[in-house]
Amino acid sequence: xxKKEMIAMLLAGGQGSRLGVLTEKVAKxxxxxxxxxxxxxxxxxxxxxxGIDTVGVLTQYQPLRLNTHIGIGIPWDLDRxxxxxxxxxxxxxxxxxxxxxxxxxxxYQNMAYMETYNPDYVxxxxxxxxxxxxxEVMLDYHKANNADVTIACMPVPIExxxxxxxxxxxxxxxxxxxxxKPEHPRSxxxxxxxxxxxxxxxxxxLQALKDQQGCDFGKHxxxxxxxxxxxxxxxxxxxYWKDVGTLxxxxxxxxxxxxxxxxxxxxxEFWKIYTKGDIIRPQYIAAEATVERSIIGEGAEIxxxxxxxxxxxxxxxxxxxxxxxSIIMRHSQIGEGTTIDKAIIAExxxxxxxxxMGVGEEAPNVLKPKIYSFGLVTVGENxxxxxxxKIGKNVCISGVTTAEDYPNGELxxxxxxxxxxxx
Length: 423
Prior knowledge:
Elements: E1 6-11, E2 32-33, E3 37-38, H1 41-49, E4 54-58, H2 64-70, E5 84-88, H3 103-108, H4 111-117, E6 121-126, E7 129-131, H5 135-144, E8 149-155, E9 165-169, E10 175-180, E11 189-198, H6 199-208, H7 217-227, E12 232-236, E13 241-243, H8 247-256, E14 284-285, E15 290-292, E16 295-296, E17 301-302, E18 305-307, E19 310-311, E20 316-317, E21 322-324, E22 327-328, E23 333-334, E24 339-341, E25 343-345, E26 350-351, E27 356-357, E28 377-379, E29 384-385, E30 390-391, E31 395-398, E32 410-411, E33 416-418
Parallel strand pairs: 1-4, 1-6, 4-5, 8-12, 14-17, 15-18, 16-19, 17-20, 18-21, 19-22, 20-23, 21-24, 22-25, 23-26, 24-27, 25-28, 26-29, 27-30, 28-31, 30-32, 31-33
Antiparallel strand pairs: 2-3, 6-11, 7-13, 8-11, 9-10, 9-11
């Protein structure tokens, strides 16, 4: 019988709809980050750096790129005969076939996988946060308090607390109450969606709530545990943690990597972030090119100017092009003489020559004003933008566009071009 002290279950099925066209064809944890990584690299690297060698990755929405990226787990040293990384999509059972309908329901459907390892503890993680955390320290805290459930929490400014699930503790870290997105929060300890459960407790609560529609940890499992007299503790985390759930926070988290002393350091020897790298060529920066305060991925070719930007692997920036405050993901091409200000350009995008992007005053987006804001231009993957067009702010573009899509050669601020193949 295999026995693992702690295994991790990584929830990576989310669509991430607030990232708009960026997650139209790809699950949020597979979105590129920092010119080299994908978001899921962070929790996976945390696992291996914390000595956890058994990770189940639960996928659902658009899983192809995630599956290809994870493969058999070699970059994270998770290609093990016993344990390692296993991708767990929803599957058809003899009595029913159903999608994962909530975070806890997804874990419940993989009970057999967890039983294989007969763990003492199960660590539940989200696949879409950027942070470094030693889960072993959290486990020590869980054991020291003889806890049934330990929830990683982060102090947030009280005025922001209503966006989170908030934990109320008794001064020794024991949770006495919690509120889901309260209007008037009684505490500023926000749940990070990272839980350690003692296995018998997790098993019992999943079993008890198996018929609950859309069964979720925050809404159902934690209240059940509390009502049934389980010991719940809050583990306070004070490191860097970013939920890159909106285009604004995604853009900011990338931009913070460029700071001279970045708050989030990707270069620490003792806590490496591992990823699957498939671009072998070195980058090339032409003699006449200018690169300032930027991250440039492997195999990128720069002939123009790049200021304060994150450029992914195998990106080509033609001569005369000027890129400022932008994120350009792998395999994209920017034409000659094009100027780009404050844009997020997804993978495999082709931007023509003499395009001007990010000009004029801001205006609310016609399609989804809450999503396409922050003054950004957002371009979905595989999009094509023709030569000589002018593009405003708070706009989104997806699909192959032609000159006809830009009346008078422009897409004003707040505009949207979503070609049907991008739907």
